[in-house]
Amino acid sequence: MIFKNISILNENFQLEENMYVGIKNDKIDYIGKENPQGDYGESYDGKGKLLMSGFYNSHAHSPMTLLRGYGENLALQDWLNQRIFPFEAKLDGNAVYWGTMLAMAESLRYGIVSTTDMYYFCEDMVKAIDESGAKNNLGRGVTNFSDASLYDLESFSEMKALYENYHNAANGRIKVDMSLHAEYTSNPKTVYQMAEYTKSIGANMHVHVSETKLEHEECKKRQEGLTPIQYLNRLGVLDNKTTAAHCVWVEPEDMDIIKQKEVTVASNPISNLKLSSGVCNVPELLRRGINVAIGTDSVSSNNSLNFIEEMKVFAISSKEKYQDPTAVTPVETLTAATIAGAKGQGRENCGKLAVGYKADLIVLDIMRPNFIPVHQMVNNIVYSACGGDIILTMVDGKVLYKNGDYMTIDIERTIFETNHATQKILAML
Question: Transmembrane segments in this chain: where (predicted)?
Answer without folding.
Answer: none
